[in-house]
Amino acid sequence: MSYRKLKITEMGRISVDQFHQAEKLPLVVVLDGVRSLYNVGSVFRTSDAFRVSEVILCGITATPPNSEIHKTALGAEDSVNWRYFKDTMEAVKSLRSEGYTPLAIEQCVDSTMLQNFRPNEEKKYAVILGNEVKGVQQEVIDACDGCLEIPQYGTKHSMNVSVTAGIVIWHFANAKMA
């Protein structure tokens, strides 16, 4: 068998306008004080790939338009809906009032391992990812309906926030497609 890379024109991607009209994954990604603009851009790009409903940027997390975000988002900051909240707790309260179930992505006592979590098809979810050093704020964890954890088997105690976002978004998208 011979494999040939697809040309961009063969990939059948939709336009930004079509993206805005398309059905979305019932998932919101919340960034709680993420410092790296490259991480923010990467989350936008992955959110575009899986048609995440929205990205919410909180606290010190930078917002578009920004050249460093654009460098990794490659325009996904224009396709994916986003909002900014000065305080992550306000974002969680707002999402809860909109019918979302908030879940922290964090290593916690009694957290649910991601592979053991099956999203309920009747629910909309918001996943909160934290700062690169401090993680999700404890008060935000306390306001969530649960914690999801990605198992790790190496020597490091955490993964890059954009990698974590990709794994979590894929898990929700894969459950929706199944």
Structure characterization notes:
There is one protein chain. This protein has a single domain, classed as Alpha/beta knot. Helix content is 35%, strand content 21%. It has seven helices and seven strands; from the N terminus they run H-E-H-E-H-H-E-H-E-E-E-H-E-H. It has helices spanning 16-21, 37-49, 67-73, 76-79, 88-97, 138-143, 161-177, and strands at residues 25-32, 52-58, 82-85, 100-105, 112-113, 124-130, 147-149. It has a seven-stranded parallel beta sheet. It starts with 15 loop residues before the first helix and ends with a helix. The mean pLDDT is 96.
How would you briefly describe this protein structure?
By secondary structure, the protein is α/β, with parallel strands linked by helices. It contains seven helices and seven strands; from the N terminus they run αβαβααβαβββαβα. Helix content is 35%, strand content 21%.
* Unreliable spans: none
Number of individual domains: 1
Radius of gyration: 16 Å
- CATH fold-level topology: Alpha/beta knot
List the helices and strands and how they pair.
Layout lengths: L15 H6 L3 E8 L4 H13 L2 E7 L8 H7 L2 H4 L2 E4 L2 H10 L2 E6 L6 E2 L10 E7 L7 H6 L3 E3 L11 H17 L1
Parallel strand pairs: 1-2, 1-6, 2-3, 4-6, 4-7, 5-7
Helix pairs in contact: 2-3, 2-7
